[in-house]
Design goal:
A: mainly alpha; three-stranded antiparallel β-sheet; 12 helices; elongated; B: alpha/beta; 14 strands; Transporter (chain A); transmembrane (chain A); ABC-type transporter activity (chain A); membrane (chain A); transmembrane helix (chain A)
Chain lengths: 321, 299
């Protein structure tokens, strides 16, 4: 079976391995240079951008020289779906469209063993490729994470555990769609669409609700809003705004009324707000929830993947194919 | 050959898809060592029956026993005793012929690689050619060589020659019959080509609209049936229950009867029936002799 799986899927594995390898090497080269900007290691400068002059200089250089790379990293949002769907879509669909399922399942290897071997091998390749690439990318982003935190979408979605879970999800969707649609290309398309829809809705709607966010309140400072004592840059800010002295959150209309009142009174807005006891509030998840959130999101995607693989196994077992 | 002497036994087998029944109430017994033709029009349920026999599908009702084992279990042992050649003889198109043989070796308990290589060499099929680059006839031969290298006790073929040109068809059947002559393998194949059957097979199953309408040893079936030609008549009352088909011309009536050669009525002449005509008669009358007694068929 090992030889057969390798022979059947070596093209996909080879192409994906080559792509992951090329991008990985490019990231390693650029990442080494970026890391060299931080003599004491990037982790030492975490949260020190405004405090430590050496760190501030390092961050400025990082932004000037490698800021463009960070913007390009957004393309790697698609790595999990390309890897997972490319390996999952043909698993059953190619056999079904070529009629070779009838060949494969009438040899002496029972179909459930055939399916188990294929699923384990190709899911394993999916995990290995995405995992390796994510490890490199996570390392590459260390200086950027020290600067901006890891909770923003361009960090959280590319690092740690979740990319591997996304890839397994894409693999499972593609395999299941291939079993039902019996064609590789539509299965790949379905996986791609499902991946985008699931990723977006989870990141925008579900992720902020993995835990109860914290709320920080402080009076509007007289000198303006720059002196931060509330949530730091590494925390994940979900909502910010103003509340009155009793803690009641002001709607934007109410806030504009206050602005108008300050204008009419001819006073500075900050002084006006401060005098009335208006507070700034921030709703946020603290940075140390990173791994908890990673685990929750990874578990979510892996669970859906497991259900979909269950459907595939059930269909093959019941000979609905 | 098995100790029981029975290659295949189906009992009340039915298969229902979402659209309805593809096969109903199919009860068959095929002796080991024989060549059986499964004949029926397109959509009669031939492919469904064959897939049930090799365990690719599970029956909705009834049981399928191959060589004394329930095929739905699909253990390596039962799978290795049955060879299957699906319609259009699918192969992994990007594999070379040698890789197809390696596939066979990797996926089977026993696989006679030498035998397969010998067969392919005799046919002049190069081992280093990609399967997809071979002609249709050669692909069919590779698929057959793969199936035979398993040394199966039962070989099932779905429309094996339907897509082949006459020459390739001839060569294919020659190889197949050679394998039968070597002994030890029972063959069940489907076809909608009715002629040539007599030369090739010794057992017949006619399938129509998902039901078996005729099954038996070909010599016995030919002996049981005959054509009766007589004056034009509305019906042959005495024999209504044995008439399979009645054809009326201006002056004559020709009846195909299954009466096991009872004495002929006065004025009627008996003739033997050709296998092709027999099959065609059963294909036209989907429910067999019992329902075919309405004799008012216009000429």
């Amino acid at each position: 079976m090992t030889w057969l799986i390798w022979r059947q899927h070596r093209t996909e594995v080879g192409v994906l391995g080559l792509l992951v390898g090329l991008f990985g090497i490019a990231l390693l080269v650029l990442g080494t240079q970026a890391h060299d900007l931080f003599p004491g290691g990037p982790a030492r400068c975490a949260g020190q951008a405004a405090v430590d002059a050496a760190c501030a200089a390092s961050f400025r250089l990082l932004d000037e020289d490698y800021g463009y790379v960070e913007n390009l990293l957004a393309a790697f949002y698609l790595v999990p779906v390309v890897v997972g769907a490319f390996l999952g879509a043909p698993l059953l669909a190619r056999e079904l469209e070529d009629g070779t399922w009838q060949l494969a399942w009438t040899q002496a290897v029972p179909r459930m063993r055939w399916l188990a071997a294929k699923l384990v091998a190709l899911a394993g390749v999916t995990v290995a490729l995405t995992g390796t690439f994510t490890a490199v990318l996570t390392w590459f982003r260390q200086p950027f994470d020290a600067w901006e935190g890891r909770f923003q979408y361009d960090a959280f979605d590319l690092e740690g555990l979740v990319p591997v879970a996304y890839a397994l999800f894409a693999f499972a969707v593609a395999t299941a769609a291939g079993a039902i649609l019996r064609r590789s290309l539509p299965a790949f398309g379905v996986a791609f669409g499902a991946f985008l829809a699931a990723r977006m809705s989870v990141a925008l709607v579900a992720r902020p609700a993995y835990a109860t966010p914290l709320t920080a309140m402080q009076p509007v400072p007289v000198g303006g809003t720059n002196a931060r004592t509330g949530p730091g840059v590494a925390d994940w800010m979900i909502e910010r705004g103003y509340a009155d002295a009793t803690g009641h959150r002001l709607s934007s209309t109410e806030y504009h009324e206050l602005q108008d009142a300050a204008d009419r009174a001819g006073t500075n807005l900050n002084q006006f707000l401060h005098a009335r006891g208006v507070q700034e509030f921030g709703v946020y998840h603290p940075a140390d929830r990173f791994w908890t959130f990673q685990l929750i999101e990874a578990a979510l995607f892996v669970a859906v993947a497991a259900v979909l693989i269950g459907v595939v196994v059930w269909r093959v077992r019941r000979r609905m194919i | 050959m098995t100790a029981t002497g029975i290659a295949l036994r189906t009992d009340g087998v039915g298969k229902r898809y979402r659209k309805g029944w593809a096969l109903r109430d199919c009860t068959l017994t095929l002796p080991a060592g024989g060549v059986t033709a499964l004949v029926g029009p397109n959509g009669a349920g031939k492919t469904t029956l064959l897939r049930l026999v090799v365990g690719l599908l599970t029956p909705s009702t009834g049981t399928v026993e191959v060589l004394g084992h329930d095929v739905t279990a699909s253990t390596p042992q039962t799978l290795s005793r049955v060879g299957f050649l699906a319609q259009d003889h699918p192969l992994y198109k990007r594999f070379t012929v040698a890789e197809m043989l390696r596939f066979g070796r990797a996926c089977n308990l026993r696989f006679d690689q030498k035998l397969a290589e010998r067969r392919l060499a005799r046919l002049g099929i190069p081992l280093d050619r990609r399967a997809g680059a071979l002609s249709g006839g050669q692909q069919a031969q590779v698929a057959l060589a793969l199936a035979l290298a398993k040394r199966p006790d039962l070989l099932v073929l779905d429309e094996p020659v339907a897509s082949l040109d006459p020459l390739a068809r001839h060569e294919f059947l020659q190889v197949l019959m050679g394998a039968v002559a070597e002994g030890g393998v029972s063959i069940l194949f489907s076809s909608h080509v009715v002629h040539e059957l007599e030369r090739v097979c010794d057992h017949l199953v006619v399938l129509n609209h998902g039901r078996v309408t005729l099954t038996g040893d070909i010599d016995t079936l030919l002996a049981e049936h005959r054509l009766l030609v007589g004056p034009r008549t509305a019906t042959d009352v005495d024999r209504a229950d044995t008439v399979v088909q009645a054809v009326h011309s201006d002056r004559h009536t020709t009846l195909l009867v299954r009466d096991r050669a009872l004495p002929t009525a006065p004025g009627w002449q008996a003739q033997p029936v050709a296998l092709e005509d027999l099959v065609l008669a059963y294909l036209r009358h989907p429910c067999g002799p019992d329902a075919a007694t309405t004799p008012e068929v216009p000429a």
